[in-house]
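User: I'm putting together a teaching handout on how multi-component assemblies are represented. Below are the sequence lines for each component of a complex, exactly as they appear in our records. Could you produce the 3D structure of the whole assembly as structure tokens, so the students can see both representations side by side? Please keep the chain order the same as the input.
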Amino acid sequence: MALFWRIWMAVVAVNLAVLSIFVILATMQFGNINAGLAADRLTVLANRTAAPFEAAAKLGLPLSTVRNARALLERSRQSDDAILSIDVFDADGRIIHSTADSQQREISADIQETRRAARGAAWHHETFDGFLSGIEIASRGGGSAGGIVITYSNTENVTRVRAVGAELALGAFLIFLVTSGLSAGLLRLGLNPQIGFFDSLEETISDFERAAWRSGGHDLAPAGNADESELKRLLAQAEHNYQKARLDLDGLRVKAT
Amino acid sequence: MRAPGFTFDREGMRIRLILMVAISVILSVMAVGAVAISAFDRAVEPELSTRVRLIGSTLRGEIQRALDLGIPLESISGLDAYLNNALEDFGEVDRISVLNAQGDLVAVSERESATVQGAPTGFGQVVSIEAARFELPILEGNTLIGTFVIETDPHFVRTRLRQVFIDVVVIVLVAIVVAMEAAFAVAMSSVGKPLDRILRLLREQVKGRFNLRIRPGGLGGLAQTVARFNDHAEDLSEQLVNLPASARKRIAGFPRWSITEGRPLRLRLSEISDIRIALFLFSVSAETAVAFLPLYARAATRPDWLSAEFAAALPLIVYLLAMAALSPFAGTIAGRFGPRRIFLASVAPNALALLALGFADSLIAIALLRGAMAISYATATIGCQTYAIRAGEEAGSARPFGTFMAVIYGGVFCGSALGGLVAGRLGYGSAFVFGASICLASGAAGWFAMRGRAGDMDMKNAMSAAARERMRFSVPFAALLAGVAVPMNATIAVFIWYLTPLILASNGLGPAEIARVVMLYYLAVILLGPAVSYLSDRGPGSAVMVTAGGLLSAGALFSLSFWSGFWAMAVAVAILGIGHTFIRAPQYALAVRMTGATGRGLDYLRAVERLGALAGLGIAALAVGNWGGEQIIRILALIVLSGILVHMGAGLALRSRRQT
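Assistant: Of course. Below is the structure of the complete assembly, with chains in the same order as your input.
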């Protein structure tokens, strides 16, 4: 059975590694799916919020002239508790309207870079603090009059990803326990010839050892029966040779003294 | 008690292990997959719901605005087009409809897939997700005049998870091969090898030779037996040392005993399986770049006169050139310096070349580094093969070729799959670093495992036996080389290594997907290899297997004239893998039988294989711009078919000559 347990442990270790990799990959993929869904939703919200600003921009009016801008932004912000702030900025990145109380005057260089890379399309940017989603506001001439950026708390997303990861890990562990037991049964059945071979080896060796104890260190007669295994014959013959060689050496010592 | 035989049933154990490990791993992953989909569905539901409500309220707002302007619901122009646009923007929405107060349909937009998909079946049914339906009222003043209905795709989460599942399938397949190798290594180190060592020591002691000892170890009683008989040799040695000098001289009077005056020498036995882990890991590392190298090379900066197609093939051409140039000498080098030393010396250059490939941005650098990899690959593999042949001769066994090929292809399979996976997820640079790390691990495995005498440089007998052979060069052997070996290797190089990545990439597939298709070829070799060897030895025979394999290969290539696309390529690659599996081992058996020599005959075969691959790839790379991939595949199919007919003709001619 020792052979069986060793092979089983190797198989179980690989199974555990595969399940761990699966759980990690699946959790990462869930994080991507969840972030993608949130990003798309924020784009919808940003588009809706941007409508009055875009209407003003298309008339050639500066974004700063939109009346009740703060109230419009605040109404959108209150549609989801996880929205931390909504900012409207002009083409140069200066913040014109914001729901936040902070004194920040410009959008960050990172956001500017992401905006540029998006080339007018909706963009998303993940930071340590949260998740940023933005769109451009088209001007009368078709260029950019500025944009809207929504800062969204990452806490809920992270919690959800962790919860899924934990659920998967627990499920995988339980399944691992079940399939480990199953693989033990399968291996026991499937490797029966090899395990039987090893057991018979052990038995042959035990028989030989027992015979050696019982002989009390005296010469063990070599096995001559053709029905006996070759291992048994070799063990007995090698032991017999050893005893004989020892006797010959003892004889030499006696003669020398 | 059943008397134990003297062979630990290695092949039987391998087949059983593949089956049991596959069942165990596949069951685990399927079960966790079901858990994952269910967990995803529940976790994503709130976000999906919020999002769909927002979409619905935004779209309804637009309709409401038209109603506020006094336009009746049924008369809003372009409502269908507006809903169609909305549907395009939101992947998870399956159907948007507007109903009037009586519940009659005013406008609708829905995806074709929504009506086609129908009810999920099988595994899909177990993990299927309920479609979500949201209804938002449309008001005119205080009167309800209609309803806005939005329905989501129940398969949304499952389609987003498909990518993970495809990756996991690759991991599962690799895991089965790795688990099998690991379990086999455990069994061999616990029982197989210790038993071989004990038997060898016992046979020596039965002959009266007590001047050897063996490495301690083994499971249970085996370790006890090693300790006992090692101690016998050491005890007699001590007894001899303790004798007076005059008596010691008289031991010559007992010629049947051979006893050393110092500690008995340690017997270093070699086993074919010594090379398994080291060669497997080396093969994995060398193949990590194979799946995406044509794409990597094509994107690199190149001279203006060099076409993109030829640039993609250049690293492969240099690789094959270096292999072909080194192959005739690699055996001699391995013999001269010792297989172990040659293998270990190949590890560092291969790892460095892989690392450097990650930083290379010019085609010349990539080609040169691939050439360096080829040289180290050739020396490492021939070192392992020489070790296996020597170990096989010690054991009087003919297993070395089978073991060598099984391990190489197992490594190729895992390497190409993992390389594509890592490159797809983490980028090409990570894949090269991954390959270099595995290469270093192979060096460590070789350091510990290849310690038998077969790894030494002084086994003159083993080497000279092969060198002394006289080879018979016959027409059937020439037909085998020209009709089977050359077309097969040209097909591998042109179709599997070169055209498949290019064709699949042109269909929009990334490196990970390409690697998955390429690995189908190697999967057939791993899964069917033992069965083919069995059939070749005890079934219809090698010649029939080679012919069947050739016809299958030609059929796979011709099939691409009738259909195309991802599945056509995947099926063709898989069938080609089966066909080549039918050819590979029986071809070696036929070569040995036809030439009456293992060493020289196989040298010829190997050299011709490399040249065939090289010529095929060179011609294809030059011609692909003018002829296109499909035409080249058709020509390749014709060559394979003609080659098999030549081989069959030569075989029939030989048989009729023997009969007359």
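A couple of points students might notice: The first strand of chain A starts at residue 83 and ends at 90. Residues 4 and 195 of chain A are 7 Å apart (CA to CA).
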